[in-house]
Amino acid sequence: MTSHRAQVAVALASAIVVIPAVYAGLRAYDVLFVPQPNPALVSSGVKIAMFWRLWIGVYLAPLVAIGVHQIAQRNLARAVRLLHVATITSAAMIALQGLFLP
Amino acid sequence: MSVLLLRVLERVHGHLGWLAVVALLHPAIVLRNPKRSARLSVALTTLVVVGAATLGANIYPEYRQRLKQRIFIEAPSYGWMFERKEHLAVAAVCFTLIGCILHLFSPVFPAEIRERTARVAHVAFVIAFASALFVACVGVAVASYKSF
Question: How far lies B134's CA from each of B41, B43, B54, in Å?
Fold first, then answer.
């Protein structure tokens, strides 16, 4: 039971780690490959891109949670190691995107 | 939403944001020791961070309608700073939640993994603190230039 709760905790944390990474990826793609209107010339539309990016991350998060839960069932230590690496990677992604591709 | 209500919400959001930064500093320091427990502090910190973010998300559509274009016309550098603030605010909330989950669940982890889990929780809180500090500083800069 204790082990199962630990697996769920790692899966939940991994699901949330994905959200900033997806957010940063989508925004970086927009900045680099989609022509952006000048915000000084165009007034804001109805669609709020920030919320969309966030909700796409939230949509993908359960898929990652299921995958990580499978890994955690087999090897919890490995799942925690993956979470550690994913946390740092996700932080680096959103920091770089946030600072250099706003 | 009336302008008066927006002004009140904006100021509450700003103060709550700085409170969140100060609150995040506690787990970021205390949880350096992986054996240390700070469950109440972590839970309250998460509550403040999520509260500040929820309030910010509620007034964000009004910011876009009433202020964003004017800021970009008059001072584009402030406009871009605010864009950076939005992105790093997402990071602050997400990493706070990660730290909170891992810290609150740490007793259920087997002893040999608990220390590594505690280290991940600490890293998450340090990232959340750094992001929140940036967000709060930029928030003050932009709000002191133009607000509702």
Answer: 22, 22, 18
**What is the domain partition of chain B in residue ranges?**
3-145
Task: Tell me which residue range forms the domain holding A65.
Answer: 2-36+45-100
From chain B residues 2-21, the ones with a CB under 8 A of any chain A CB are none
Select the residue from A2, A14, A16, A48 to test the B interface by mutation, using most B Cβ atoms within 10 A: A16
In this complex, the residue of B108, B124, B127 whose CB is nearest that of residue A9 is B108
> What is the count of structural domains for chain A?
1
CB pairs under 8 A between A and B: 108
**Contact criterion met (CB below 8 Å) for B25 and B129:** yes
Tokens of B86: 């939005």
ipTM for the predicted complex comes to 0.94
Reading chain B (148 residues) residue by residue, the pLDDT tens digits are 899 999 999 999 999 999 999 999 999 999 999 999 999 999 999 999 999 999 999 999 999 999 999 999 999 999 999 999 999 999 999 999 999 999 999 999 999 999 999 999 999 999 999 999 999 999 999 999 998 8
